[in-house]
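Minimal example, chain plus 1HE.
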Amino acid sequence: MTSKDIHLDIYGDQNEVAVIRLTRPKKRNAINDALILSIRDLFEKLPATVHAAVIDGEGEHFCAGLDLSELSERDAGQGLIHSRMWHAALERVQYGPVPVVAALHGAVVGGGLELASACHIRVADASTFYALPEGTRGIFVGGGGAVRIPRLIGAARMADMMFTGRVYNAEDGERIGLSQYVVPAGDAFKKAFELAQVIAKNAPLTNYALMHVLPRIAEQPADQGYVSEAMMAAIAQSAPEAKERVRAFLDGKAAKVKKA
Ligand code: 1HE
């Protein structure tokens, strides 16, 4: 059963872009058990027409992280299972069927930053701020943040955020790698949706390679990584769609790369 705190809408002529919105603004989109399970289920069951997704949060904040009101009732064993439940859900976001663009604004904190980190592109508007208050609350990240966040910003910066309660604003967040884009306040969803529309037009095998193969190559020793890359390159270029796209460029029918 899907939580009432999350909504799925599908857009586009061919229903190719999904918008998944956290709709619990009164609690700053804090994620309780029902909501994390619904995130998992939604990504597992996205319609086959969908080729890219946006995740957004209703209200002034993207997500205030774990619903702290549920924390006090858990013992150690339940805590372990709870953390693994988050892992399973955010694994479906990162390694699910389609690339996901996070539209960030306001608080992106704790488990909210862990959710954002599982997405493939993060667009932050100027109101965005990032923190890991777990450090000062006497707890630890449990939604995969210890794995994903150091890969974005390095372990030293993540440890500083947790040791000292350091908060990064949107601009500094982009500078250190928490987001790939910064846009004016209020524009995160618009930009994220535009990017999702672009991504949805890519050859599916290219998107697959970027989601499922590139991160694995990045974790491999270089000699293995080169072989994985060569195999992926060979598979991608042999697809009829790749041949059509390259032919269109050679025939002057596809867009050139423009100067930034
Ligand atoms: C919450 C939560 C929450 C708000 N769990 N209820 N995350 C945190 O430690 C962040 C905690 N939240 C905040 O610091 C602030 O709420 C915000 C900066 C995000 C927003 O501030 P503000 O002034 O807009 O809202 P507020 O008045 O603090 O909160 C509005 C309501 O949402 C209020 O409830 P109300 O019944 O009094 O109206 C808050 O209690 C509630 N609320 N955030 C529960 N997080 C997989 S492990 C991940 C581990 C973590 O994520 S730990 C970090 C948790």
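The chain has a mean pLDDT of 96. The beta strands are 6-11, 17-22, 52-57, 100-104, 107-109, 121-125, 129-131, 168-169, 181-183.
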